[in-house]
Amino acid sequence: MRVITGSARGMVLRTLDGDNTRPTTEKVKEAVFSAIQFEIEGRRVLDLFAGSGQMGIEALSRGAASAVFADRDKGAVKVIKENIEKTGFTENTNVVQMDYLAFLNMNTLVFDIVFLDPPYDTGMLEKALDRVGEYVAEGGVVICEHPYSSAMPEAYGSLKKYRDYKYGKTAVTIYRKD
């Protein structure tokens, strides 16, 4: 897995060993960033269920102002910190080892871009979407990766479905906050 473009272009990122995480494929990552390419510069990013941190790091490489990475797994947090150090983004990042709901319960920040890629078919995506809208800035986006077989609703509170994309068995749904 590598950073596609920007200041850290071409850097290879470490992934977590084992089957506990499912990294976003290069194809899906490239498509996601093509869809939001003009919305990244200077933005505040939340990478919830961060895994290796590749989505937040890609956003930073493309000019995002800051990123918060949250994952409950100790090993994932270690990998995220290593990848941030390697790419040189330590000054404008915060890495939190915490369950997603605990993070959302204590969070006071507002984000312009939120990446949600929880383990599939666990109900975590829906629970996160129920809560995350209150931390999204007006005009902000929430990008959800999920199995293609799960249809996503048209709205979650203040978040309205903008687009759906399909990449094999993976789907990406983008919500926007009006």
Write the layout of secondary structure elements.
Layout: H1 26-35, E1 44-48, H2 54-61, E2 66-71, H3 74-87, E3 93-97, H4 100-106, E4 111-116, H5 124-132, E5 136-147, E6 155-156, E7 159-167, E8 170-177
Parallel strand pairs: 1-2, 1-4, 2-3, 4-5
Antiparallel strand pairs: 5-8, 6-7, 7-8
Task: Provide a brief overview of the structure.
This protein has 178 residues and is of the alpha/beta class. It contains five helices and eight strands, in the order αβαβαβαβαββββ.
3D architecture notes:
The chain has 178 residues and is an alpha/beta fold. The chain has a single domain (26-177), classed as Rossmann fold (3-Layer(aba) Sandwich). Helix content is 27%, strand content 30%. The chain is built from 5 helices and 8 strands, in the order H-E-H-E-H-E-H-E-H-E-E-E-E. It has an 8-stranded mixed sheet with strand order 3-2-1-4-5-8-7-6. Helix 2 links the parallel strand 1 (44-48) and strand 2 (66-71).
